[in-house]
Amino acid sequence: MDLLIPTLPTLLQELTDEIIKSAGIQLYIKRDDLIHPTVSGNKWRKLKYNLEDAKTKKASTLLTFGGAFSNHLYATAAAGYALGFKTIGIVRGENNAEKLTPTLQFCIEQNMQLQYVSRQEYRERNDQEYLKKISLQFDNPYLIPEGGTTSLAIKGVQEMTVEVEVQLGKKPDFYAVAVGTGGTAAGILSEGNNLLAFSALKGGGFLEDDIKNLLPDKKKAGTLKLFTDYHFGGYAKWTPELITFIKEFKINHHIQLEQVYTAKMFYGLYDLIKQGYFAKNAVVVAVHTGGLQGILGELKGS
């Protein structure tokens, strides 16, 4: 990763407003959105050791999976281009070249080859026989799962929690994070931390098992509480209420959130704070997982 020099440790910034003061808690935001200009947030953490492994194995091509708004595709395209890998993205859904999302347009600009597949075929992305077929089709590339979620990714996320403990001088009472594939959540949990996980997906109850199945040692894990009611319609969907929340959050804290992941997590977290979920003096660290390249046009410069 020598060509992808990060800003480490990332800032741990305390937030304060009337809601936080009234609850009597300490709320911090781990600014992993500042880790790298194009490979930001949890994607840098999760790709770090996967890319080192690919280099060690002398792979020339990376192949991975994602949807039209995938932060992971964006980050893999950027990292692959910088490090001299050829990249291939298996994209869920039809090819709409005339109406590409900014994420997919960026991937193309980074020379990523996009291969569109049906939603039915995309469901096979973790099936071993399907992966064998894909590997043969693309001349045995280095495979990175959707979201970059592997045991190597968990190792990268664990390093983030080590940074936080040094910055705080202790473990926080809770971490909070948005969840898509579960790798970041598993990395946090695996270090014995208590985690509040907010699903960005509609019907995301299955994520609890997915996260626990990723843990390298379940006995050392902290406690997990998964919230599935803050998806705002589902993955990459949002409502005017969420957009208003993003704008108000930026006014109050001068920090930009995005509508796919981080805003949903913070909206849910603030809802819990207002409900009295946390004991007085609780210390909560919310992780900003990046993804700002995908913000809506109406939020840029707001």
Describe the protein.
Strands 1-2-10-7-8-9 form a six-stranded mixed beta sheet. Strands 5-4-3-6 form a four-stranded parallel beta sheet. The protein is built from eleven helices and ten strands. The mean pLDDT is 95. Helix 2 crosses helix 3 (71-83). The relative contact order is 0.17. The protein has 302 residues and is of the alpha/beta class. It folds into two domains: 12-37 and 151-299, 3-Layer(aba) Sandwich (Rossmann fold); 42-148, Rossmann fold. It is globular and about 60 Å long.
Please report the total strand number as a whole number.
Answer: 10
- Cα end-to-end separation: 33 Å
Characterize the biggest β-sheet. 6 strands, mixed
CATH C-level name of the largest domain: Alpha Beta
CATH architecture of the largest domain: 3-Layer(aba) Sandwich
Taken from the alpha-carbon principal axes, the silhouette is globular
